[in-house]
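User: Let's play a game. I give you a shape written as tokens, and you guess the letters that built it. Ready? Here's round one.
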């Protein structure tokens, strides 16, 4: 513990040591300049003591103080204030104190009687007090203590101080030196640690700024790449729609034998498969095109008044063939909302409802049931939902599947294929109508997906059971 307290923070790098000295000097320069100019006035004030105790030597002592020592102190203070002592501050302080101590020794050698006991004490007080005001380094403080000790020894030797005065002066001097040395040690050690901390903090800040710059650059690169990807998908999807329409059209003509019978009959079956696969691929292309347009902010919504109940029935009808093939029953919850008109994009909401019902059918077990509901919530929101009793979704996958090209991590979902665009499009459609897409699911028990529209979307409403 003691070793840790007195551990000195020296610098391993000479550059850091030089930088510390420069910063330390700059921080203390103004206060040191003030103290250096104030010192001569403090020293000159001792002239009053000369008149009291120096007797016949008072005038000589005043001449030494005011016309010899004080001008030297002011000269050094002036050079220091002009920056002429930069890098040699300790030498300037030593030269500053030297005439003060020398004059005290000279005065002590001339005095006789009780006055001899006063001047050495004044020398010690003046030297140590001014040393503390100058806030020097620990090394200079140690050298200053040695120098003042030597001067005190000379003063005691040349003066006729009494034994009691010598003991008192030495005790006072040694205690003051010990306090000063320990204080300056901790003071400088603290400054070194602070300097090291500031340097490390500065390096950390610069590193963070560089990292921030790289992160911003990478962000812009990612945004540009995302924009390029969206534009590419939009162009490719648009270009694919024309040949896909031709494939679907001609395969339908062949499958229905509009221009005459075809042989062998297996060709007609192949044409049906081509037609169905073409329609499925065209739906995927349309979904990709919608996602790309939405990411670029170019997707269009045509808001007008329409019957939402009829739209729900259309979505259920569009999914009926898929439900029959999957052996899933799609039912409608009661009561029905007749002649309920809302303001919105009918085709986009039909697309979203079809996606939600289609997903519910896809992820239901054979023989399962999908329940479609359109009702008002307690807060007045209009809620369309489709509930199934299928495989469900884990809690950690719910937020993921809202994003484009994301699917829940299950073998069943992977086996069913798809690009993971259905719910992403539903989320875009709900947001465009100031609504929300809600997903409530329990793994292994089923899922309920809802589009909740605000009351502002409702134009006219007839309560259930009211005659139309």
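Assistant: Ready! My guess for every position:
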């Amino acid at each position: 513990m003691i070793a840790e307290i007195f551990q000195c923070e020296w610098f391993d790098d000479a550059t850091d040591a030089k930088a510390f000295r420069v910063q330390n000097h700059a921080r203390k320069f103004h206060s040191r300049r003030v103290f250096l100019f104030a010192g001569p006035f403090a020293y000159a004030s001792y002239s009053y003591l000369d008149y009291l105790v120096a007797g016949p030597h008072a005038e000589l002592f005043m001449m030494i103080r005011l016309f010899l020592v004080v001008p030297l102190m002011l000269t050094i203070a002036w050079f220091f204030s002009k920056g002429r002592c930069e890098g040699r501050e300790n030498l300037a302080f030593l030269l500053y104190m030297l005439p003060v101590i020398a004059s005290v020794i000279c005065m002590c050698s001339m005095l006789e009687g009780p006055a001899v006991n006063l001047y050495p004490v004044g020398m010690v007080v003046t030297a140590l007090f001014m040393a503390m005001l100058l806030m020097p380094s620990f090394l200079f403080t140690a050298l200053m203590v040695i120098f003042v000790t030597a001067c005190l020894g000379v003063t005691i030797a040349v003066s006729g101080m009494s034994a009691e005065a010598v003991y008192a002066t030495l005790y006072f001097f040694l205690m003051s030196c010990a306090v000063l040395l320990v204080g300056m040690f901790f003071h400088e050690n603290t400054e070194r640690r602070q300097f090291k901390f500031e340097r490390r903090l500065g390096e950390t800040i610069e590193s963070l700024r560089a990292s921030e710059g790289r992160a911003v650059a990478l962000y812009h690169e990612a945004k540009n790449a995302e924009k390029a990807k969206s534009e590419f998908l939009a162009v490719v999807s648009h270009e694919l729609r024309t040949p896909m329409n031709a494939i679907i059209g001609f395969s339908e003509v062949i499958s229905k034998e509009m221009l005459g019978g075809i042989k062998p009959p297996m060709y007609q079956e192949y044409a049906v498969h081509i037609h169905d696969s073409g329609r499925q691929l065209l739906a995927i292309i349309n979904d990709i095109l919608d996602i790309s347009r939405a990411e670029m902010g170019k997707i269009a919504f045509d808001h007008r008044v329409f019957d939402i109940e009829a739209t729900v029935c259309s979505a259920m009808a569009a999914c009926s063939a898929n439900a029959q093939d999957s052996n899933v029953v799609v039912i409608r919850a009661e009561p029905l909302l007749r002649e309920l008109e809302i303001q919105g994009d009918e085709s986009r909401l039909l697309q979203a409802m079809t996606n939600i019902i289609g997903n519910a059918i896809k992820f239901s077990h054979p023989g399962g049931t999908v329940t479609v509901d359109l009702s008002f919530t307690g807060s007045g929101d209009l809620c369309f939902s489709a509930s199934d009793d299928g495989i469900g979704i884990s809690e950690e996958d719910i937020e993921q599947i809202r994003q484009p090209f994301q699917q829940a991590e299950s073998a069943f979902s992977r086996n069913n294929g798809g690009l993971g665009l259905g719910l992403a499009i539903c989320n875009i459609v709900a947001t465009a109508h100031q609504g929300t897409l809600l997903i409530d699911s329990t793994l292994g028990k089923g899922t309920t997906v809802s589009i909740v529209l605000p009351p502002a979307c409702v134009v006219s409403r007839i309560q259930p059971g009211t005659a139309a």
